[in-house]
Amino acid sequence: LKKKNLYIMSQNIDPFNLMEKSVSESIININKIYNKWYSLLNETNTFSNKKFKFYTKEINRMINDIEIDLNDISNSMKIIENNNNKNEKFKNIPKQEIQRRNEFLKESKNEINNIKIKLSNEEVIKKINSDKLKNQEFNNYNKSNNYTNYIKHQNEIKDTEFLNEQIEYKKSLMDKQDKELDYLLGDVKTIHEISLEIQKELEIQNKILGNLNDRADQSLFSINSVMRQLDRFKESWFK
Question: What is the model's pLDDT at position 114?
Fold first, then answer.
């Protein structure tokens, strides 16, 4: 709504008709916007809803423009009333018309005041403050949740690193154990081979001892045979 520069008004000019039409259209428009604003008030979070904020600014702007126009109309009415008997043109404005214009002015002011009251009533303020608080709580929750997720993610990274370290450590232990088993198996194999060698040596020694025993037995038998022959010789000699 464009401002009308009507605060300077000549006694020969009556712009009321133009102003009346402009204000009437503006009031119709502001009521339409108010209805949209009121729907958003009840259906959305007013603190975060961009349309609600836009309509709020638009309504306040229109209220300001309409009030300026109504003030200009009020000033024009005062001029008409003060010069009704002095100016020929104003004399042509009947008292009923003046009364009608004053009624229009009064009704228009009441219409705007009612909208202003609706915009700032206790329930509206309560809803707006509640939405603001909810939005802050939601943001705080998101921040807290994001921080919690960050900590959780960091812990998961640490857990993964720890598990990887444990896996590497266990792998190194297993490699070490495998090497030790290889060494042990090598030692066992060596001991087994030594045992076989010793067993072979013992078998050879046993064979040698067996042969020696056989020879000793044969020698003893031969000696005994010779001794018996000597005994028989001695017996025959002394007879």
Answer: 96
Distance CA 212, CA 39 (A): 127
Q: Which long-range contacts (CB under 8 A, 24 or more apart) does 109-114 make?
A: 109/70, 111/27, 111/31, 112/27, 112/30, 112/63, 112/66, 112/67, 112/70
In order of their start, the domains of the chain are 16-120 (1.20.58.90)
CA gap 27, 55 in Å, rounded: 15
Banded pLDDT at 5 (limits 50, 70, 90): very low
Task: State the greatest distance between any 2 C-alpha atoms of the chain, in Å, as a whole number.
Answer: 213
pTM, rounded to two decimals: 0.52
Q: How many residues does the chain have?
A: 239
Residue 3, helix vs strand vs coil: coil
